[in-house]
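Predict both folds.
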Amino acid sequence: MKVGLLTLEQKEEIQYQLFAPDSYFCAVLDGNGNWIITQPQMDYCVNPDYLWVKELPLIDWVEPEEEQ
């Protein structure tokens, strides 16, 4: 699965902000320590303040390891 790669600054800017009516960004850390958002969050973004997410680089999702 491909996901959008965020910088820490970008993550701080969009975290919990509306990307569409009743839909909020929720960035998470992947298994490589990258902040990411899902492609649907990118694709369905209609908030003019955050349309730049549609241009984020796509990377492969890496599942985080379970903590022991």
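Second protein follows, with its predicted structure tokens after the sequence.
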Amino acid sequence: MVSQLKVNEIIKQSGSSISIGESGDTITLPSSATLTNFPDNTPSFLVTRSGAQSIADSSTTKIQWNSEIFDTDNTFDSSTNYRFTPGVAGKYVLAAGTRASSFETGEKMQLFFYKNGSGVSYQTETRNYSASGGGETITVDSQILVESDADDYFEVFLLQNEGGARDIGSASYFYGYKVIGA
């Protein structure tokens, strides 16, 4: 026997939760249903480089992210500060990566995440030899899980020591999102 229950509001009688169904049941909502007050992975953003940025030798340089792919809550400043300020306290996954060419053996590149102006994490490169005789291409990428207050901000810096400036470009990315339930 199939039954329908039509109500406008369900309020708990006592206790602190309402259960729908039993263990193993599948609850199906129509595709046109609107769910409210459910947690989501926002704010979230993805930014990249459009064009080259020169990274000076032996100095830690902030990467200038000048192309927003998406920014759900307008929390990434791509105009001047090139930083992510969540606006909502919580735990966040942040990831960034880039690459540069023409490195000699023994030279290095490191990517740093900064929180409120201080380094919190870094990642050293992966090397790929270029058969064209132009030296090695170095790729560096990293992902971290960080706790944030609403007003903390995060930036990405790069250090390389090739002996001269090196360019990074459109293969560079920085993204982040809030972790649900953490």
